[in-house]
Amino acid sequence: MKKFLNSGWFWALLPMAAALATAAYGGIGFQPFPDSADYLALGKNFMSGFERGTAVAPGWRAPGYPALLWFAGLAAGKYAYLAVNLVSLYFLTVLLLNMAQELKLNRAVVLALIAGSAGIPALAASALSEMPFMLFVMLNLELLRRREYLCSAAMLAMATAIRPAALLLWIPELLFALILLRPRMKWWKAVLFILTANLLVLVWCVRNQAIWGHFAYTSHEGHYIYFYKVASSMANAGGYSIDNARIICAAKLAQDMERRGEYGGDIFSANAVAAQQSLDYIRDHKGDFFMTMLSDLQNFWLPDITPLLERLGITAGNRGTLDVLHSEGLGAAVRAYFGGANWKVATAVAVYCVWYLAFILLTAAGIIRMAMGRHWRMLAAVLLTISYFWLLPAGNLDWRFRMAVQPVLILCAAYAVSRRRQHGSGQQSGATSGN
Fold it and tell me: Which residues contact 203 (CB under 8 A, 6 or more apart)?
């Protein structure tokens, strides 16, 4: 019993309990985030048509999370999303605590950082796909670090089936394994890694071809780039709101589809046209587009307290702060962030922002310490992972995009305050701790 109480298997119950309390306080059926309705509908309909009979457009959502909801629903019913997310959070915490022990990091610090992240219980208590996605991404990274390439690729395939954000992650991981890991990955293992990492994507592409007549993973990518990235660039360049920019984009998309003779076509066709219009815009407005993406990068690091308050059913009063930040500057954004809430909520938000700032500074200190300790492979793995999830969605960044690498950030922050290892052991650990 004492051994169990001292193990990660016991302490991992604490973040799970916090998420369960969040769900209970806010209401099990309360879902303040728009994406949740899609996932719940697709989960119920997974084995009987998926998008058919729902308000979700064909190909709009990846199949992984709805599949998990359907499977959990066989036993948990309406609590399926909570079962999937709490189990994912539990095993993610166990994994991080075990990694911390192997890397000689302070496990108490890791546990405190997990429990102290407002976004984690908010996500775990909502019908959103981030929790299982975070688990499979971390399993993928840890298995890659151990050179278990086939299992690592399988975990990456699962992550990609849950969220298309991981669709291209196999590229930096493959480069890392071929160039930086010792011994380097052999060519035939590289081929198996690529095939396995993309297996579920290819299966779903075949499914979409059979049902919808399009060999495509989702019908979302082109729309996403056009209505978020391009629209953001247009809004910044033209000096009008993002909503007006999207109205203009929608009108241009309709005109272009009519010109191509595809007006009234299905959503996959519209997606392809939106992707082409995005490429045309980027080619003609490289400077404006690049500057918009650059100005958006800061939003990746915004605090994640607001979604927790929303999940608890507390009105924070700071919706729309990003728009204020873009249009009126930092001072107005700070006033908007705190101005709409009562003093108790504003105080809680202010305290959390101080805690969050300390976490970010610790993360940066951990990365600097890796460089000073010459743990180059570990440093490269951390920077590649963070950069991938930070740069890929630029133009539409918020706290949810950061959550994909929140476990990596937590390990970096713990690294900053853990005891310094000897140079020799550090070199060895760096060689085996590539990701």
Answer: none
User: Please, is 264 exposed, middle or buried when counting C-beta atoms within 10 Å of its C-beta (0-12, 13-18, 19+)?
Assistant: exposed
pLDDT band of residue 427 (cuts 50, 70, 90) is: very low
Distance between CA atoms of residues 64 and 44, nearest Å: 13
Question: Which pLDDT does position 426 carry in this prediction?
Answer: 40
DSSP string for residues in 212-274: HS---S-S-HHHHIIIIIIHHHHHHHHTS-HHHHHHHHHHHHHHHHHHTT-TT--HHHHHHHH
pLDDT, tens digit, for every residue of 223-245? 999 999 999 999 988 888 888 99
Give the DSSP letter of residue 1.
-
The DSSP secondary-structure symbol of 418 reads S
CB 421 within 8 A of CB 374: no
CB 103 within 8 A of CB 433: yes
Enumerate residues 6+ apart whose C-beta is below 8 A from 249: 226, 227, 230, 231, 234, 277
Question: Is the previous residue joined to 303 through a cis bond, with omega within 30 degrees of 0?
Answer: no
Report d(CA 183, CA 431) in Å as an integer. Answer: 10
Per-residue pLDDT reduced to its tens digit, 400-421 = 999 999 999 999 999 999 865 4
Question: Which residues, including other chains, have CB under 8 Å from residue 18's CB and lie 6 or more apart?
Answer: 115, 121
Task: Read off the DSSP letter of residue 285.
Answer: -
CB atoms within 10 A of CB 78: 11
Residue 396 confidence (pLDDT)? 87
Among the listed residues 369, 308, 316, 362, the one whose alpha carbon sits nearest the alpha carbon of residue 339: 316
* DSSP letter for each residue of 92-112: HHHHHHHHHHHTT--HHHHHH
